[in-house]
Amino acid sequence: MRHFPIFLDLRGRRVVVAGGGDAALAKLRLILKSEAQVTVFATNPAPEIITWDGERKLRLVKRAFAPGDALCASLAYAANEDDAEDTRVAALARADGALVNVVDNLEASAFITPAIVDRDPVTVAIGTEGAAPVLARAIKADIEAALPPTLGLLARIGQGFRKAAEVLPMGRKRRDFWSEYYFNAGPEALATKGKLGVELALADLLIQHIDAAPTQGRVDLVGAGPGDPELLTLKARKLLDKADVVIHDRLVSSEILELIRREARLIDVGKKGFGASAKQEDICALMIEHAASGAHVVRLKSGDPGVYGRLDEEIDALEAAQITYAIVPGITAANAAAAHLGQSLTKRGRNGAVRFLTGHDVKGFAEHDWRNLAKPGEVAAIYMGTKGARFLQGRLLMHGAAPDTPITAVENASRPDARIIGSTLSRLPADLSAAGPDGPVILMLGLLPRAAEAAVPHLNEEFA
Ligand code: SAH
What we know:
By secondary structure, the protein is of the alpha/beta class. The protein is built from 17 helices and 19 strands. The radius of gyration is 30 Å and the shape is flat. The structure holds S-adenosyl-L-homocysteine (SAH). S-adenosyl-L-homocysteine binds next to α12 and β19. S-adenosyl-L-homocysteine (SAH) binds next to α12 and β19.
C-alpha cells in the first residue's frame, strides 16, 4: 500500500486550488463538502467558481498562483491542466509547506483524492493508487446503491447518543445495541415516525438493552476453505463479521483474515509442519476462557475443520466446559486441488472411492492400507505429504505400484500463487525437492492435470 488512507480534519484549515477549468471544478466539488477555507487562484475561472465566490463558499483570486500563496495551507491542488504551469505551482506550494496534488499526475503528487461515497458523517473513500479509476467508479456505484440515503441521518442522530450509550459495557453489549439501531430500530422508526421518532426509539432501545440478560459466550468451529476468500461459505463469512475473538491457524490466508471484523481480537495459534506450535491444550484453554467470559469465539481452521483439524479434541474440551458450539464445514484442500487439475475426485470406471491420507501423524510417518493404494486407478489426496514423500514412494513401490503412477502435487490450491507440480511415483521426491514449494502442498495420487491425462493414452486404457 503506497498511499495510506486517512481522514483529514479540514475544519478551518486552508486549501488552495490553482486553476479554474474542469479539473479544478471537479476537485472543488469534493473539497467544498469539507469545512476548509478554500482559495482558488485562476486567471480565467469557470462561472461556477465565480458564483461560489459570491456565495462566500470560497475565495477567488483572479491571477496566477504566486510564491507564498500556499503559506499555512494544508493541501494545495495544481489543477491548471497545463504541465508547465502545474509543475511551477507544485514547486511553489511545496516550498510553502503544503502537501501537493497535481491533477492526473500520480508521481508529482504527495497525496491523491479518492472517489467518495458521502453519507456524512459516514464517508467511504475508494482508492486504486491511480491504477484503475474505472474500477473505483464501479465500486463507488455499488456502495452508493448499498448504502441507503438515510444512513447519514441515522448516523448523525446516533452520534448525539453515543455518550448515553456508554452506560452499556464496551464490547459485545454495546455493539449489539448499535447494530440493532442501525439495521432495525433506526430505519423502522425513521420510516414510520420521522426524525423525532428515531430519537425516542433510541432511548427505548437503550433501556431494553440495559435490562437484557448478559450474553452467553459460544464457539463456532469454522472451516476457512483452502485460501480463496470466495470459497468461504456464507455462514463462515457472516461469522467473521460477528466474532469477538478469532483463533486461527497459520494456513488461514491473509485475504480471509482481512474479512474479520476490525474490532475482533485475532489470535494466531499457527502450527507449521514439524515446527513450533501453540499446544493443543493451550488452544482449547483459549477458546474456553474467551467463551466463558461471554465472547463469541470463532475457531478458524483452514479447509474443513473435520479434515486433519484436531476437531475432536476441541469439541471434547468444549463439551467438558459446557460451552455451546457449532461446526461450520469448509471446502477441503483436496476439493480445491482437484478443481485445479480439472479432475473429479471420483470418476465412473476409474475410481468409485477416494481416500484422504496424511503423510504423517502423531507417531511420525503414517502407515496406510498400502496394498490397496498401490492398485491401478486408485485416487488419494495426501495431506502433509511432502516431508514423507520418500517414505510414501517406498511403501507404494514395495506393494507393487507402477513406478509411472501419476502423482500431482498442488501447492497453494485456490490461491493466486497456486502451482501444479506434475510427477510420478518414481520421480516424486526428486520433483518435489526441485520445485521447492514453500506454501501448503497436497499430493494427488492417481490424478493428472486434465490436459496431461489426454496426452497419455495408456493411462486412459488402464483406468477404463
Ligand atoms: N483442514 C485442512 C487440512 C489441514 S492439514 C483442509 O481441510 O484442507 C494441513 C495440510 O492441508 C497441508 O499440509 C496441506 O497438505 C493441505 N492444504 C491446506 N491448504 C492447502 C492449499 N491451499 N493447497 C494445498 N494444500 C493445502
